[in-house]
Amino acid sequence: MTIMSIGMALTSRILTGEEPCLRKVQYSRMYELPVDAELIKHRMNHELLISKVINGLTGEIYVNYQVERDLGEIQLIGLIDILNINRKSKTIFEIKSGKERESHHVQLWLYMGCFDDVKGILRYPSTRYMYFTENIPENLWEMVTERLNPLQTKKLLPPLKNGHCVYCKYRNICKKRGIVENILLF
Asked: What is the pLDDT of residues 121-147, one digit of tens each?
């Protein structure tokens, strides 16, 4: 029985330490926050970049292709920006509009790990990186399972004790629920 589904993009940020708070991950599954104008602007820019890449491709082209990977009670779900299938090869394109981050590379590896014999291209507006299946760390899925293992609970995990909470969009919910949850669960 699956306790929770987690996006592969979020998983990549957890693996690289860009998202250190697993409690925040739990809250992101429990509470849907409103979409702001910046997010809409980002999504529109992202779609424009995807359309530019698609123009140069041939063969079968899938946009926002969903992939899944079950890891015990956690299911990883991802949306591949572009999956291009030709007679000769399969290529995954992950398009990024912001600055380069380590988690972007890991996200592409997670997508690639769902296929056999696939190339992966991480594309920024001014640079691109190409990976092959053999470039994926051999222990990738073991690292993911180990890092996400604490989430295999229905209990609320303890919050982090550092400055990370100041910028967290769930901080008000966490403060209100944290006292009650700590008494009941820990």
From this structure: 999 988 999 999 888 999 999 999 999
3-class DSSP state of 126 = coil
Write down the pTM of the prediction: 0.87
* Domains held by the chain: number: 1
Strands (DSSP E) contained in the chain are: 4-7, 60-71, 74-85, 90-95, 119-123, 128-132
Kindly list the distances between the CA atom of residue 147 and the CA atoms of 9, 71, 111, 144, in Å, as whole numbers in the listed order. Answer: 14, 11, 18, 5
- CA 160 – CA 182 distance, rounded (Å): 13
CA-derived radius of gyration, the chain: 18
CATH number at residue 46: 3.90.320.10
Residue carrying structure tokens 């008494």? 183
Domain that holds residue 109: 4-185
